[in-house]
Amino acid sequence: MPYVCVLDARDSYGSQLDGKIVVDVTIPFDVNTLQPICPAAGSSAQEITALRPAARVVKVFHPAFASAVVGTGGTDQTGEVFLAGDDVEAKRIVAKLFEDSGLSAVDVGPLRHAHELEALGHRALATSPDLPR
Predict the structure, then answer these.
(1) What digits encode the pLDDT tens for the residues 49-87?
(2) For residue 84, what are the contacts with CB-CB under 8 A and spacing of at least 6?
């Protein structure tokens, strides 16, 4: 899902997100220039939290997500998935979903680290040989 769609969904669903676990896998970047977008709140996950503080936001990164964005398959279902979030129980639930599919979940800490996961995603996009130049 493109970053702008996350903001649209956040705004469209509003209070329906309250109390729900929201898994953010987006990598905020400009689709025309491929340059990273720096959300005002620090990350796309923090943007959701800024206006929907009752949502249980978990930022997730796995290299296959970046591959899927650039159309290189995104089928790598091995390795580690990285999680950031302030809701410990929400992270546990999300981690279990990934672990049940054979991935190792790595908790990188609170949501303030979400921008670091987004930077990893952008790096994966920027170095993909399959990106249109």
Answers:
(1) 988 899 999 999 876 655 544 444 444 556 889 999 999
(2) 45, 58, 59, 107, 108, 109, 110, 111, 112, 113, 114, 116, 117
